[in-house]
Amino acid sequence: MTYKKKPSWLRMPARSSEEAAKVRSILRKYSLDTVCRQAMCPNLGHCFQRGTATFLILGNLCTRSCRYCAIKHTEGVLLAPDANESNRLAEAAAEMKLRYVIITSVTRDDLEDGGAGHFARTMEAVRTKIPSALIEVLTPDFRGSIDALNVIADAGPDVFNHNIETVERLFPDVKPEAFYRMSLAVLELYGKLAPSTPRKSGLMLGLGESEIEIRNALQDLREKGVTMLTLGQYLQPTRMHWPVERYLTPDEFDAWKDEALSMGFVSVASSPLARSSFHADMHSGSDLKS
């Protein structure tokens, strides 16, 4: 399998700065990981230079094997959640002077609550250390568990994010251990549990979806009450992963942003290098104030 050559607009310039080095040093100091590094995000250097990072909790091994994702997966026995990780993360966030903290995790189907309790403990630790900080959580589907979602809702994140990632037709191939309708149900159910909390989701484009399929997915999200959206270009991590079907142009992403806003989304980050957490602190502002 060969890579498609990346167009010029997907080449993020290399960045090295004192601020980025400081972020890396803090993460090492507190023995923390980021989804930026594990998922081989192209924006890693840019975000580190801005002094931001998306914290990855519950280890760096996933119990699922999605065909687009660079995070390693395993069918073996995983370690129990690190009881002190929540406090270390809060300390790191405070040292980084974060005002907007993003917490995500690998999928942990081996845990009875899918890791929801660890999410909640981490949010509590951050709020204790930085009371003024806003918190966004990007969660797995918890296999649709209402109990797990209740735990997250009770912890009260400022934004609840769960990505559907792709359109319904491609879902069984790209995310073989998950279900499109379950992800939509998670977003809908969370809205019933915490109606005042903005819900967010996102798609990768360029996996082989059609325009009508994208449009249908956006409409599905709106019908479930999602108001915040991210659209970005899929980038193939290795030759073993799902291939890129095509690269969308920046103009196409602009057009999708306009269409999404016309559908009723309040906040839309749509560009080739947009990712779920890229500049989330900036894109979330309008919805949190509305």
Molecular structure report:
- This protein has helices at 18-29, 35-38, 44-49, 85-95, 116-129, 146-155, 171-174, 180-193, 211-223, 250-263, 280-283, 285-289; strands at 33-34, 54-57, 100-105, 134-138, 159-161, 199-205, 228-233, 267-270.
- The N and C termini lie far apart (46 Å).
- The protein contains twelve helices and eight strands.
- The model is unreliable at 36-41 (pLDDT under 50).
- Helix 4 (85-95) packs parallel to helix 5 (116-129) and helix 5 packs parallel to helix 6 (146-155).
- Strand 4 (134-138), helix 6 (146-155) and strand 5 (159-161) form a beta-alpha-beta unit.
- With 290 residues, it is of the alpha/beta class.
- Strands 1-2-3-4-5-6-7-8 form an eight-stranded mixed sheet.
Gist of the model:
With 290 residues, this protein is of the alpha/beta class.
SSE layout and pairing:
Blueprint: H1 18-29, E1 33-34, H2 35-38, H3 44-49, E2 54-57, H4 85-95, E3 100-105, H5 116-129, E4 134-138, H6 146-155, E5 159-161, H7 171-174, H8 180-193, E6 199-205, H9 211-223, E7 228-233, H10 250-263, E8 267-270, H11 280-283, H12 285-289
Parallel strand pairs: 2-3, 3-4, 4-5, 5-6, 6-7, 7-8
Antiparallel strand pairs: 1-2
Q: Strand order across the biggest sheet? A: 1-2-3-4-5-6-7-8
How many helices? Answer: 12
Class from helix and strand fractions? alpha/beta
Q: What is the helix content?
A: 25-40%
Net shape: globular
